[in-house]
Amino acid sequence: MLWAGSGHLTASYTGDQAAVARAIDTILAAGKESGLPVAMNGTANLKQRIAQGARIFMGGVTPEIRKEAGR
């Protein structure tokens, strides 16, 4: 499993949110390419993240959000 943790990435990229977004996209692509599930925190853009290969979401996932995402 890969972890696309926005908090850790924000610290690593000194708050550069554009770099964080690129890093998350890179991690998701690597997971999809290698067949590894990707975990991430938060539920922003849930449908998009599922399409990109995210499979595990930590925190904030409510029944309503799952229903909206078709899960």
How large is the share of residues in beta strands? Answer: 15-25%
What is the number of helical segments per DSSP (H or I, 4+ residues)? 4
Q: Which structural class is indicated by helix and strand composition?
A: alpha/beta
Quaternary organization: single chain
Which value, in Å, is the CA radius of gyration? 12 Å
Largest beta-sheet details: 3 strands, parallel
Helix content: 40-55%
Low-confidence stretches: none
Describe the structure.
The two termini are about 20 Å apart. The mean pLDDT is about 90. Helix 3 links the parallel strand 2 (about 40) and strand 3 (about 55-60). About 50% of the residues lie in helices and about 15% in strands. It has about 70 residues and is α/β, with parallel strands linked by helices. Strands 1-2-3 form a three-stranded parallel beta sheet. The protein has one domain (about 1-70).
Keywords:
alpha/beta, 17% strand, three-stranded parallel sheet, 4 helices, single chain, 52% helix, 71 residues
Short account of what is shown:
The protein is of the alpha/beta class and 71 residues long. It has one domain (2-68).
